[in-house]
Amino acid sequence: MSTQARTAGILRGQLARHAFWLGVSGVAAFLVVWEGVSRSGWINPIMLPAPSVVIQSAAELAVSGALLRHVLESLWRALLGFAIGSISGLLLGIAMARLPKLHSFLNPLVQFFRAIPSLAFVPLAIFWFGIGETSKIVLIAFGVFFPVWVNAYLGTRDTNPLLRRAAASLGARGWRMLLFLILPAALPFIIAGVRIGISTALVLVVASELTGAQFGVGYLIQLSQQVFRVDHMFVGLIMLGMLGFLFDSLFERGLAKWLPWYGTENDRALQPASRP
To answer: Are 85 and 196 in contact (CB under 8 A)?
Structure first.
């Protein structure tokens, strides 16, 4: 390993540790302020329970097993809907970018449905598919489809034409051009669409669980509102935030492991300039 690479690795590690402790400090400061405001008497503590109360309520739900059941139910719905929506969006985005006639045929329909908020389809999904799991999965997949589709389409369409001509001059055609040039070039767009799709799946899993669910984080929040347990509502909100943070962190680790070359521009920026 060269000296520049080792230096870049050391700097990257230092920046990561620095960012980690800054993040911990920010979270701690937020919790301290929240605890102080809740216990100050300025706000009714029932309306804004302190973090210590929320943690105690979360522990009670965890001991009873209800919290794990709610999280697992929401988790599998979000993952299945995300998988269906992201795969279909990725495939159709690439196909429409590569096939102009298909783009002309489908683009008006896709743009029409993309303009309609996913939450507007909740009553229709229940009417068509009932209050079971199918309506929830369909709704999540529908919402995830569009951010993945538009990013896959734009990334595939906007591949540098100079790179295409260079690859063609070397004999790249058809699937070789797609696999070895276009998809790697479109990867930053695709990754951005997938990350947006993750957060969209979590939003829609809550919306889908507000009607007809017996378990799930969204159901927990709705049930807590009906019985005026604001502390349990905060438990549900915190679990959603933790799930989103966990998914995003796992996604970044997966990129670092399976696509180690992705983001190498940042590594180059960390390397010291070479002497002439």
So the answer is: no
